[in-house]
Amino acid sequence: MQEGTVVQVIGPSVDVRFESEKLPKLYNAVKIEDKEKNISLVLEVAQHLGDNVVRCIALATTEGLVRGMKAIDTGGPISVPVGEQTLGRIFNVFGDAIDEKGPIKDPKKRYPIHRPAPCFEEVFPDLARQFVREGARLLVVITNDAWFGPSAAAYQHAQTSAFRAVELRVPVVRAANTGWSGCIDAAGRVVGRVADAQGTELFVPGTRTCEMAVSQSESVYLKFGDWLPILCVLLTAGWALQRFLNLRSRN
Questions:
Q1: Distance (Å, whole) CA 90 – CA 131
Q2: pTM for this predicted structure
Q3: How far apart are CA 127 and CA 207, in angstroms?
Q4: Domain check: are 151 and 187 in the same one?
């Protein structure tokens, strides 16, 4: 862990100077502690300013912070616990439990708060509809589900593929590293899945061959898109408004 010195404090912005060639990386957590002033503050490196100075953003009040105070680079970004142990719990941005149920005991995994976004393209119906309208008769979803870990979230993410298959009447093949991989026909039925000999479907290598019919018919959603639900909403709103006006005129 490298030690630096606070050189400037302006609101939540804190500039810290470190030794040459020992600057913390962007997004690294930097801690400032002073027991006499009752200060325990976490900063996040936001910018390299040059002259061995980094600009950090304080994640709490900077009251009492002054130039010359020591700052410690933790060597990594802020991280939070993940996994089944966190279900139903409430945490702050540092991963500390704040629901008065006590800390998480020996969390198996901690992930940094800055991570690549998950592959959620398949949750957008209009995007999949665009591909099919351009001629695709089979959708292939290649996704990175590693951030879900061995949890139910991987299966929940996979369910969106079934929705896309039904609403567009096209089969979907899904290949997910660590997540659920398999084949879904145009009716939304699972016709094949990747699993090991014990039936485990997550975090297992494997291959699967599936046979699925490719239909040339078009679904209502493929033809009209979101116009049908929009029309239903407008009709419902019109009916509600008309009923409201009728009740008001009677009174």
A1: 40
A2: 0.53
A3: 27
A4: yes
